[in-house]
Amino acid sequence: MAIRVNLDVVLARRKMSVNDFATAIGITPVNVSVLKNGRAKAIRFSTLDEICRVLQCQPGEVLEYVEDDTE
At 8, phi and psi to the nearest 5? Predict the structure, then answer.
């Protein structure tokens, strides 16, 4: 199983910088980068809620399931 994080795409569509986004959702820019680059192992529902609220999107626009070739 692989979950792809499309946060960079959604941020680009909204023309929002990482720093502005981090401030709006209440996490550090470093943690936004970890999410954006797909290096996060988990995400809190409260953080996902804030992401969707600020970006006015659905969770499926930020997270995407893709088949893992290694299975």
Answer: -60, -40
Question: Is domain 2-66 classified as CATH 2.120.10.70?
Answer: no
Which one-letter amino acid corresponds to residue 33?
S
Pick left, alpha or beta for residue 48 (phi over 0 → left; psi -120 to 50 → alpha; otherwise beta): alpha
Beta strands in the chain (DSSP E): 2-5, 63-66
The amino acid present at 7, given as its one-letter code, is L
Residue with tokens 């970006």: 55
The structure's pTM equals: 0.87
User: Is the torsion defined by CA of 49, 41, 15, 58 positive or negative?
Assistant: negative
Write the pLDDT tens digit of every residue in 45-62: 999 999 999 999 999 999
* pLDDT tens for each residue of 1-12: 589 999 999 999
